[in-house]
Amino acid sequence: MKNTTKKLVDKSTQELNAQLKELKSELFNLRFQNATGQLANPKQIAACKKEIARIKTIIREQELKG
Question: How far apart are CA 51 and CA 5, in angstroms?
Answer without folding.
Answer: 10
